[in-house]
Design a protein that fits this description.
Elements (H helix, E strand, L loop, with lengths): L1 E5 L3 H12 L3 E6 L15 E4 L3 H13 L4 E3 L8 H10 L3 E4 L5 H17 L6 E8 L9 H13 L5 E3 L11 E8 L6 E7 L4 E7 L4 H14 L4 E3 L1 H5 L2
Parallel strand pairs: 1-2, 1-3, 3-4, 4-5, 5-11, 6-8, 7-8
Antiparallel strand pairs: 6-9, 9-10
Helix pairs in contact: 1-6, 4-5
């Protein structure tokens, strides 16, 4: 496939390496300041977008309006998801969005939901979450953290919302704590805990590099070929 990289920072370069390893070609490398409409897209089969929340929707809309399938790794724009989805359906386009493209993280999402359902019968355990990312990450909590929190809440009836605070600072017992920490050179760590006075149960996903995110986005692009509609990594991995 011929892949356009919308965003050519650290993630874009990591995606380029994986794509080339898997036999694909990079048709465009689009960085800050480049105008999408001024570029030649005739040799592009799919775009992979990792930029910033404030520009992501414009990039997505351009691709959908020009019949370019798109993989979207940027988070922090989901308040406009419904309008983007409607545009994709109107244009018979193709799009995969994910808060995290790592194959391991998406398996972790499923494990989190399973654990939450099991712990729903043991209300003496208090749930909490912590997400840690590099200091350059623009959104807090992370999209991955929000996905984990929503997955837990869906499967545990003690919680009806999440709050981005430290443990002990939540407004009520029904508010799930989702703490965000920012530290240098951390690709991404997410921990889900259930604790009572006797013991604690924890599951953790730790990204060792950006390679997992890059690999997942390229696999998603391969999977999207020939399809129409809006999909997630659950569709790609059939989980």
């Amino acid at each position: 496939m011929n892949i356009a990289l919308i965003g050519y920072g650290k993630m874009g370069k990591a995606i380029e390496d994986i794509a080339l390893e898997r036999g694909h070609t990079i048709s465009l490398k689009i960085d800050k300041g480049d105008v999408l409409a001024s570029l030649d897209w005739s040799n592009t089969d799919v775009a992979i977008e990792f930029t910033a929340p404030e520009v992501a929707v414009g990039n997505i809309e351009f691709c959908l309006k020009n019949a370019i399938p798109i993989i979207v790794g940027t988070t922090g724009w989901y308040e406009r998801f419904d309008s983007v989805k409607s545009l994709c359906e109107e244009k018979t386009g193709a799009m995969i969005t994910a808060t995290n493209f790592s194959l391991g993280v998406n398996l972790f999402f499923a494990l989190n939901e399973k654990l939450a359902a099991m712990m729903n019968n043991h209300k003496d355990y208090e749930a909490s979450m912590v997400e840690i990312h590099h200091t350059e990450k623009l959104d807090a909590p992370s999209g991955t953290g929000i996905s984990l929190a929503e997955g837990l809440i869906k499967n545990h009836d003690s919680y009806n919302k999440w709050e981005n605070v430290k443990k002990g600072e939540n407004s009520s017992d029904s508010a799930l704590v989702l703490e965000s920490l920012r530290e240098p050179n951390v690709p991404g760590t997410h921990k889900v805990s259930f604790e009572n006075e006797i013991d604690s149960i924890e599951i953790t996903h730790t990204a060792k590099s950006r390679k997992g995110f890059a690999l997942g986005s390229v696999i998603a692009a391969e999977w999207l070929k020939g399809k129409n509609g809006v999909y997630t990594m659950r569709d790609v991995l059939d989980i």
